[in-house]
């Protein structure tokens, strides 16, 4: 059992839209260096969970702490700063700004955080783009890059402020299998270097790379599989999909081989 302070600590997290509850008292602790995949049927609340634990959306009830900071106690300005400096986001469709060149897209979060002079930020961004194999696109527009390249740019942008935790919503969902595998390799490397990673995904190959896989049904985490062990968190809500998932999903060690 892990005893360190969680990087992410959600307790009794609820979220309702217009009176309809979509997250029902979710408890989730993610520890430093974990690679966590969140799976579940469409509409089960995976994206809503990601949005509320990151403070991108407000919660209706419960508490969330990220890197020891209670999101509910922060002003909007403090919350924005915490997101900027502690969290990195990778989205399915990149969410890059089309009126900026790709280098400026990568630099933007660091520029907003005022972390260093512009020249230093450019150097840092170019070094990241070099590592991701997209430095040659630095002065290009968003329209000039492929989906896989844009996703690498999105990862550079997520990493520019050296976040404690990277949160991804279907980061490979719009990619072909080759580009998806490359993006997953990159996310795996980032995690191996110590960054905590939480990915919402429908893709079992993504989940197979994770240390830990959560399965959501109807706004609840109903199973939590860690390195071959599975805790059925909410047995009363067992679901056909959960049973299939439990038998199909290989533990990480079986997929990657012994380390
Ligand atoms: N902004 C919103 N306003 C109203 N309802 C919303 C909003 N965002 C999500 N919902 C509802 O919350 C529920 C959960 O949606 P969510 O997008 O979190 O599910 P998901 O598991 O990520 O689905 P998918 O796998 O299809 O992306 C759905 O019923 C959805 O319609």
TrEMBL record:
Q: Does the keyword ATP-binding apply?
A: yes
Under the heading InterPro entries, the entry gives: AAA+_ATPase, ABC_transporter-like_ATP-bd, ABC_transpr_LolD-like, MacB-like_ATP-bd, P-loop_NTPase
Pfam families given in the database record: ABC_tran
Keywords (A to Z) from UniProt: ATP-binding, Nucleotide-binding, Transport
List, in alphabetical order, the Gene Ontology terms for molecular function in this entry: ATP binding; ATP hydrolysis activity; transmembrane transporter activity
- One CC-aspect GO term: plasma membrane
Q: Which domain of life is it from?
A: Bacteria
Which residues does UniProt call coiled coil?
none
The ABC transporter domain covers 8-243
Q: What is this protein's name? A: ABC transporter ATP-binding protein
Q: Which organism is it from?
A: Actinotalea ferrariae CF5-4
């Amino acid at each position: 059992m892990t005893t360190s302070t969680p990087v992410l600590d959600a307790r009794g997290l609820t979220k309702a839209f217009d009176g309809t509850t979509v997250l029902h008292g979710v408890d989730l602790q993610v520890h430093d260096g974990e690679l966590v995949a969140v799976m579940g049927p469409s509409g089960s609340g995976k994206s809503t969970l990601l949005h509320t634990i990151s403070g991108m959306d407000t919660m209706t009830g419960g508490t969330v702490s990220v890197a020891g900071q209670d999101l509910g106690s922060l002003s909007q300005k403090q919350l924005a700063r915490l997101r900027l400096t502690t969290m990195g986001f990778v989205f399915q469709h990149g969410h890059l700004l089309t009126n900026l060149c790709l280098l400026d897209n990568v630099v933007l979060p660091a520029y907003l955080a005022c972390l260093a002079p512009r020249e230093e930020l450019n150097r840092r961004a170019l070094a990241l783009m070099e590592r991701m194999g997209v430095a040659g696109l630095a002065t290009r527009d968003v329209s000039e890059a492929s989906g896989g390249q844009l996703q690498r740019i999105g990862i550079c942008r997520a990493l520019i402020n050296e976040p404690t935790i990277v949160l991804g919503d279907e980061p490979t969902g719009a990619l072909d299998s080759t580009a998806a595998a490359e993006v997953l390799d990159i996310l795996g490397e980032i995690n191996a270097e110590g960054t905590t990673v939480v990915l919402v995904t429908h893709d079992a190959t993504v989940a197979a790379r994770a240390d830990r896989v959560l399965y959501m049904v109807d706004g609840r985490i109903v199973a939590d599989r860690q390195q071959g062990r599975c805790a059925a968190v909410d047995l009363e809500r067992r679901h056909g999909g959960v049973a299939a998932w439990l038998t199909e999903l290989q533990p990480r060690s079986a997929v990657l081989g012994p380390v």
